[in-house]
Amino acid sequence: MLREYCPSCQMLQNMNMSCFESIENEKEDCKVKVTVKNYQCAICHSFVKSEETKEPAK
Ligand SMILES: [Zn+2]
């Protein structure tokens, strides 16, 4: 379980992670797969951070 500092609780908490994937056209004939991970505090459910990663789509 991932733990991050929650500004709302003002302490380290377990995070709930939700993941979204989408395919985007970066430029013509160049598709990238974008994965967004959102981290929410498991205790107070406030949004803590999100991470976005991009990789070439096949
Ligand atoms: Zn919290």
Question: What would you note in describing this structure?
Answer:
This protein has about 60 residues and is mainly β. It has one domain (about 5-55). Helix content is about 0%, strand content about 75%. It has strands at about 5, 10-25, 30-40, 45-55. It has a four-stranded antiparallel beta sheet, with no helix packed on it. A hairpin with a 2-residue loop joins strand 2 and strand 3 (about 30-40). The N and C termini lie far apart (about 30 Å).
Going across the major beta sheet, what is the strand order? 1-2-3-4
Give the integer mean of the pLDDT values: 94
List cofactors, ions and other ligands: zinc ion
Overall radius of gyration: 15 Å
Major sheet size, sense and barrel closure: 4 strands, antiparallel
Q: How many DSSP-defined strands?
A: 4
The assigned structural class equals: mainly beta
- The SSE string, one letter per element, is EEEE
Helical fraction:
under 10%
Q: What is the CA–CA distance across the termini?
A: 31 Å
Tell me the overall shape: rod-shaped
SS strand fraction: over 45%
* Low-pLDDT regions: none
- Taken together, the total number of domains comes to 1
Total count of helical runs of at least 4 residues: 0
